[in-house]
Amino acid sequence: MSRTEYAAKNFMWATISTILSTALGFISRTIFIYILGTTYLGVNGLFINILSILSLTELGVGEAINFSLYKPLADKDEKKICGLMMFYRNSYRAIALVVTVLGVLIIPFLNILVKNENGIPHIYLIYLIFLFNTVTSYLFSYKTTLLVADQKSYLLTNINIVVSVITLIIQMIVLVMFRNYILYLISASIIALLKNFYINNYINNRYTYLLEKNCEGLSKKETSIIISKVKAMMFHKVGDVCIYQTDNIMTSVFINVITVGLVSNFTMIIDIINRFIMGFFNAASAGLGNIIVTEDEKKRLDVFKKYDFFAFCFFGWTSICLYFLLTPFITIWIGADNLIDNITVALLCTNYYLTGMRVPLANIKSAAGVFEQDKWAPIIQSIINLLISIVGVIKLGLPGIYIGTLISSLVPNIYRPIVVYKHIFKTSSMCYFNQYIKRIFSIGICVCIIDFIINQIFINMYIWFYLIGTATICLLLPNILLIVFFRKTQEFQYAIYLRTMLLDKIRRKV
What we know:
mainly alpha
């Protein structure tokens, strides 16, 4: 299959998986809220963030190995692949041990991190279950990188679809029958463990050379290259964690864990939309790696521009929809008493857009192994985020946390294009920034027009009519403006061509 066909197949299965898990996830979340309440949602989000910080010990080993696999996979160099995976296995075993030790050391400080924890029974047991899930994922799931690098992530997606459906159904049954959060977590842990065993055996059977006992390790030179990239990735990982995994912790410490739960309802919907879109971009990421090792700079840039335009279309449109539709949807779904302020909603949606526009840059950077050139920038970004967020939450409350995230998000949106264009495309990044400004301008116009229409027509309507009317405007107007602003660009013309080609293939199959 071609790179486009692999990407389309990966995206198709990722979309099916997201649709199924989203439908069941909404049902499960609704049952969860009505049976256990918002407090436990806050605990979920908080512990996930804490353990994500512990995952700093991973230090980007996965991404460095992923980059290193592209060439040997293209060359069918089984010995090199085997050596890389052996290095990966040993690294992740060490990481699992370190995470376990650090995780246990955090236990005495849980009463500081979880504000109002007196109302949550068995808080330490709950934390240990989360820690167990994290550690076992390092021990068993490292081989999935091989499928992803080999452009066959759809095989992994098929397994995850089945497991996700089974997990959500069993968790819903446990909630309804026992109303017990501990059993809810344990049931998911057991299924995840069985899934990891199965995937490990599945990959061993598919790539039988991984089981060879005389598998040669990497040379000192190859190991030093990977270690060099891991050291650079360490800075990126630290930056990412300080930016994306500290909001819930600060909310719990400075406000309370219930507010973490309220915000999590909004971020869950944002994450669902993000998973749909990332299914497309992740499906094509291995293809980018293949392009990097087989094509010249001009071809790389041509592909990237189209890739980046899709990011703008998807993330720009959905950020507009989320801004206008999140609050009425939450109101209908679980009630107006589960809302957060409009300023925080706007900040969440803006951060979602800024993060989304970095996806093409991050993916091609990772595919090309460009880690060392900008390793200090994420540290600067994280310092800005933490300082502004701490001052912001003290002065402004919840919105202050996300103001820090927003301001710090501007840093990589400025430096990353410069690095990518200089080291991968060997050209100036000015054309990228010109397009970036035009796109922000078009989104701003769209938001102003939709806001004017809503305030003139829908503002006093019954909530269901308000949601339907607003959704209709959000569906139509951004797409109309997209055509008006960008119809003459090569990227838009390619998007039309690709859509036509995919529709033709679907019609032939039907």
